[in-house]
Amino acid sequence: MATGKVVQVIGTVVDVEFPADELPNLFDALDLDNVGEKLVLEVQQHIGNNWVRCLALGATDGLARGVEVNDTGQKVSVPVGPETLGRLFDVTGTPLDNLGPVESATPWPIHRDPPPFDHPHQTPYI
Question: What pTM value is reported for the model?
Answer without folding.
Answer: 0.85
